[in-house]
## 1
Amino acid sequence: MRWPIRGSHTGRRGRAGAWRRFLRQPAALGGGAVIAAYVLLAVAAPWLAPYDPGQNDLSLRLGPPTWQHWLGNDELGRDILSRLLWGAQTSLLISIGAVAFAVVVGVPLGLAAGYFHGRVDALITGMVEVMMAFPGILLALAVVAIFGFGVLKLVLAIGIYSVPTLAWLARGSAMSVATMEYVEASRAMGQRHAGILRRHVLPNILSPIIVQGTLRLATAVLTAATLSFLGLGVQPPTPEWGAMIASSVGYIRVAPHATVIPGVALMLVVLAFNVAGDGLRDSLDPTMRRVD
């Protein structure tokens, strides 16, 4: 016998209610629109970029915006718009890869700790607490120092840095769901633990995981830019927003556009993910369902 998931009686009505709550939040809608534009531009970068992002032309070095180069040129005469678009793709791949890694690793660990308790909980919790004892950026720096530079190494570094947050969240949520009557009844019926976790526990903790995953995307984008700015992330000539800021910051007085444009793009994307994440949290909060 398969026991119903808590709250599943609302079904599509519950999801529709959450969607309506999200649509009633102008800030969240604005954040979602910026994210949609960011993803679209990143995916379409090969077709939208007017120039090769690595093409140098020293005669255009630090050139201001013109009709040929809408956002100007950087210190090597490369087109900033083209590098900004390709950099958006790089940042998107890094952030999605890092958060996906954190979800795949952290959520199962948190589920196991919150459901089984005892020695399993103690072992996983101890490991997560050791990781959380390090400031996040220092943990990412340590991973980069061990594994080296590159996009994949950066994904791994940011993913490992994000695992404790998602594991801790999944653990707390799983602990509350594991004590519910329908879970106890499933155990009494002889269902296997894997089936209970898959059918009853995991579906009921997805909402906070989705919200936290959205917020972690903002952290991943910012962390990737920070590491690249420090020279420990994406290496030249690969376009990436943090690396673009780092290479042009020395010319900020004579060509502020080369530094300000990627900085503003980074700020808008991080802000959009945070605002959209807050909107998702308010929309998916079960306590908010009473107002519909």
Note: Confidence is low (pLDDT under 50) at residues 1-10, 288-292.
## 2
Amino acid sequence: MVSIRFIVTTGLVIAATPAWAHTGTGLASGLGSGFIHPFHGPDHLLAMLMVGLLAALLGGQARWAIPASFLAMMLVGGGLGLAGLAVPAAETGILASIVVLGAVLAWGQSLPAGVAMMLAGFFAVFHGYAHGAELPAGASAVSYTLGFCLATAALHVTGLVAGGVAFASPKVIRLAGAAVVVAGVAAAVS
């Protein structure tokens, strides 16, 4: 019989394909496009899942505080992108988010919730910027932003649930973090 831990681990390892930040590509408009956007690139997908896993691993108030920090700072970054302001090295920041968040999980040591919130919030600015910068002229910024926020929250919840299921074995969360680090490093060197 296949265990739930095996399924979660396998899914996360399979999802850990090379990540590419994609600022400036693609067509974006409306709620649906905003919702779909985070699922189009493994960069956003993996980072959002890692935020949820980190929140699950730390537990307590961190379960809501870390994802909330990410969402709030993603809105700040999205505003910068919508305003046409440059965020230096946004693609590098997105790629770094995958490697760093994965490494924190692979490390397996407890991080203070405040530090985890700041770390997630810092990387969220880059992800939000990518979303905001991809909005084409004339599209509804409000509905697009709502869409990518809802998708991000859904991915955080997925990470939280996966972390809750896998938490019986912290080794599974560490393995998922290590797989994501490998994916991020592979993307960085390719």
Note: The helical segments are 4-15, 30-40, 42-58, 62-82, 90-107, 113-133, 141-166, 170-189.
